[in-house]
């Protein structure tokens, strides 16, 4: 088999080796399961305007990137070991993003409340359909979340109607204190899943064999796809806007810098992204254990076609 290989499901081309039945599927959170309804700094700016504060979105974007990095360096992991909560950490960030303008605490509270509701974020429409159909085919599969984020993720998953699908298998860097792209995070997940579900490993199988039945799905090439592969998992890059270029050009990946990644995450617009990716049906098999898909529907078809 020559890789990479571009295919369309169902039935154009054959996946080799065949996909093994999944026993564990994990998802990154932001921009994989859900994304912002409109660009995040547009939301900040709109809320500020209600208080009579006018700040250009472009300035907020640049301030956010720099402030996030500064706070993360000074108070890593959302301030977990510095005597304040993740919510306090975000409040500090919001205040500093608007500097030199001093904003009222009620504005900060309004922003913090909005980002935990359907006004601020929305689940991609293909996620729940994926979970239901794949669980129907593989009833014992464990579906979870592995994400570099803070505990607000739990509440957001609840607000978006997703939490019950992942309950008991949400692994956040804040709690575990391991961060993608460190493969040790994926090792931790495997160990915990096996401890909680000892029967998940077949008789005579090893942890190494079990990893061949593990899948991670995320939107970042290094932190999701490469990291999961290094841990011995199957890996899927869901690239709804083809930011990495692999869905068009099999030979040339568009390298995204850290700055690009920051700005891309701030600039998400759920409806526009969904309109772009919803009807795409092709995918790319990069090698025996990694794939690039334009949406989760294609991933579902991949599992169901080969299951």
UniProtKB/TrEMBL annotation:
InterPro entries: HAD-like_hydrolase_domain, HAD-like_sf, HAD-SF_hydro_IA_REG-2-like, HAD-SF_hydro_IA_REG-2-like_cap, HAD_sf. It comes from the Eukaryota. SUPFAM superfamilies: HAD-like. One of its GO terms (cellular component) is nucleus. Pfam families: Hydrolase (PF00702). Gene3D superfamilies: HAD superfamily/HAD-like (3.40.50.1000), Haloacid dehalogenase-like hydrolase (1.10.150.720). PANTHER family: HALOACID DEHALOGENASE-LIKE HYDROLASE DOMAIN-CONTAINING PROTEIN 3, PTHR46191. This is Uncharacterized protein. It comes from Huiozyma naganishii (strain ATCC MYA-139 / BCRC 22969 / CBS 8797 / KCTC 17520 / NBRC 10181 / NCYC 3082 / Yp74L-3). The lineage of its organism: Eukaryota, Fungi, Dikarya, Ascomycota, Saccharomycotina. The gene is KNAG0E02190.
């Amino acid at each position: 088999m020559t890789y990479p290989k571009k295919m369309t499901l169902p039935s154009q081309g054959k996946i080799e080796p065949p996909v093994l039945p999944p026993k564990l599927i994990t998802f990154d959170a932001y921009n994989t399961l859900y994304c912002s309804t409109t660009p995040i700094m547009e939301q900040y700016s709109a809320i500020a305007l209600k208080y009579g504060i006018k700040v250009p979105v472009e300035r907020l974007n640049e301030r956010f990137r720099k402030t996030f990095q500064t706070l993360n360096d000074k108070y890593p992991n959302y301030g977990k070991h510095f005597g304040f909560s993740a919510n306090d950490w975000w409040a500090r960030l919001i205040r500093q993003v608007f500097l030199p303008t001093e904003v009222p605490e009620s504005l900060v509270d309004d922003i913090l409340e909005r980002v935990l509701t359907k006004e601020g974020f929305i689940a991609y429409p293909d996620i729940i359909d994926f979970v239901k159909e794949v669980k129907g085919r593989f009833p014992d599969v464990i579906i979870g979340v592995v994400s570099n984020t803070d505990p607000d993720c739990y509440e957001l998953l609840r607000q978006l109607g997703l939490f019950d699908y992942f309950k008991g298998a949400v692994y956040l860097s804040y709690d575990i204190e391991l961060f993608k792209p460190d493969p040790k995070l994926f090792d931790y997940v495997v160990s915990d899943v096996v401890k909680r579900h000892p029967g998940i490993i077949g008789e005579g199988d090893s942890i190494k064999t079990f990893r061949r039945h593990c899948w991670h799905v995320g939107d970042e090439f290094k932190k999701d796809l490469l990291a999961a592969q290094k841990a011995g998992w199957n890996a899927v890059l869901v690239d709804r806007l083809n930011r990495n270029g692999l869905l068009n050009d099999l030979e040339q990946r568009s390298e995204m810098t850290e700055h690009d990644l920051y700005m891309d995450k701030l600039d998400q617009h759920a409806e526009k992204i969904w309109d772009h990716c919803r009807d795409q049906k092709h995918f790319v098999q990069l090698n025996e254990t990694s794939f690039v898909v334009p949406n989760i529907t294609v991933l579902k078809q991949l599992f169901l076609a080969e299951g």
